[in-house]
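Hi all, posting the design record for the shared folder.

TITLE: backbone redesign
STEP: 1 of 1
STRUCTURE INPUT:
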């Protein structure tokens, strides 16, 4: 039992959230040892171990040392900081594989788009709490920008900057999260359907009229997806390679898998094995059972977090906990969907499992927020 600077003791918090988080992080470290042991060096594992320790410390500090109701006045500023960082990365960031989305800070690399997703959750929770009655009264889609100009403008600015960075998967995940928060806050269903339709139309335009690599990915998805039974596999190009290798690895795993350390894909057959396609490595080596265990741990984290949200009296804390849960779980759905070719290939990591400090830190912050909200406190 520890005392924090707000004069209260934390006496309890949601154990299911904590145990799911710890379990996923441990699995991530085991997977990283498995992958890096056959690749260039163990350096990636040691870095990931340091990332995990640092991220866990931040989550604990948030659990014991923050009171979000008293800090909600900073939520708008979080979005402003995110916008500044997104502009900064376009000016001074590093370009990797044609995309400029990373700020280099010596040995550390940070992607502001991950921070922007968290900042928007805080911002939406604050605004929707203050205007909850107005949200339920809004009956016309044309009234939404008028009644919620701050949400409309700042969301478009953030999404526009992320789009320039060529990080469409982040926009998709953030969009799913924010739509989920609007639904949870009580927006009229027809308004939400129209907003989703507008977003899908915008996404279609970006894919068809934007950079050619996105259309190549869509063609690869159509070729290998089970949703399109009439497929021509006679010709394949570079854009098909990752999809084909991912499906090959997953199907070779079967029910029980090939066994830890016996997988083929991690031997440089599958690019981005440590990040975007880490779920494929899990499926190949531990089979359907291992892949399901990882997915069910993510589900446990999500539903436990939503239970935390439901137990709150404050709408602000309800929305904040639910938003953080959705932010993580939507990422999981996109990553696993891509690995199984249920969704078109796009670059995003698997929370707590994939290699990378930025995503792990932001997801751990989200877990810290949920644990903080779930905590029972005793006044001194």
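Okay, here is what came back for every position:
SEQUENCE:
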């Amino acid at each position: 039992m520890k005392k924090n600077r707000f004069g209260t003791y934390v006496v309890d918090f949601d154990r299911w959230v904590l145990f799911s988080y710890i379990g996923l992080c441990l699995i991530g470290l085991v997977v990283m040892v498995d992958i890096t042991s056959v690749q260039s060096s163990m350096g990636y594992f040691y870095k990931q171990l340091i990332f995990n320790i640092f991220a866990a410390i931040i989550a604990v500090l948030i659990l014991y040392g923050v009171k979000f109701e008293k800090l909600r006045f900073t939520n708008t500023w979080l979005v402003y900081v995110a916008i500044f960082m997104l502009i900064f990365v376009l000016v001074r960031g590093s370009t990797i594989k044609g995309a400029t989305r990373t700020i280099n800070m010596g040995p550390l690399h940070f992607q502001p788009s991950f921070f922007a997703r968290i900042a928007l959750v805080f911002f939406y929770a604050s605004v929707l709490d203050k205007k909850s009655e107005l949200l339920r009264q809004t009956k016309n889609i044309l009234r939404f920008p008028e009644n919620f100009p701050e949400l409309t403008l700042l969301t478009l600015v953030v999404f526009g900057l992320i789009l320039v960075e060529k990080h469409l998967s982040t926009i998709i995940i953030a969009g799913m999260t924010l739509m989920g928060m609007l639904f949870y806050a009580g927006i009229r269903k027809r308004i939400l359907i129209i907003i989703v339709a507008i977003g899908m139309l915008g996404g279609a335009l970006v894919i068809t009229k934007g950079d050619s690599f996105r259309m190549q990915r869509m063609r690869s998805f159509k070729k290998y997806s089970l949703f399109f039974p009439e497929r021509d596999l006679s010709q394949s190009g570079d854009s098909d390679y990752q999809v084909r290798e991912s499906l090959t690895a997953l199907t070779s795993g079967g029910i029980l898998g090939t066994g830890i350390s016996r997988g083929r894909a991690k031997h440089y057959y599958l690019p981005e094995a440590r990040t975007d396609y880490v779920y494929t490595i899990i499926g190949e080596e531990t089979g359907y059972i291992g892949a399901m265990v990882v997915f069910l741990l993510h589900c446990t984290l999500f539903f436990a977090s939503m239970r935390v949200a439901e137990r709150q009296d404050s709408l602000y804390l309800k929305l904040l906990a639910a938003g953080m849960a959705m932010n993580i779980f939507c990422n999981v759905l996109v990553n696993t969907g891509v690995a199984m070719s249920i969704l078109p290939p796009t670059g995003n990591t698997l929370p707590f499992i994939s290699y990378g400090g930025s995503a792990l830190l932001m997801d751990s912050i989200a877990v810290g927020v949920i644990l903080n909200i779930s905590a029972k406190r005793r006044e001194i």
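COMMENT: Residues 67-210 form one domain.
Let me know if anyone wants the other runs.
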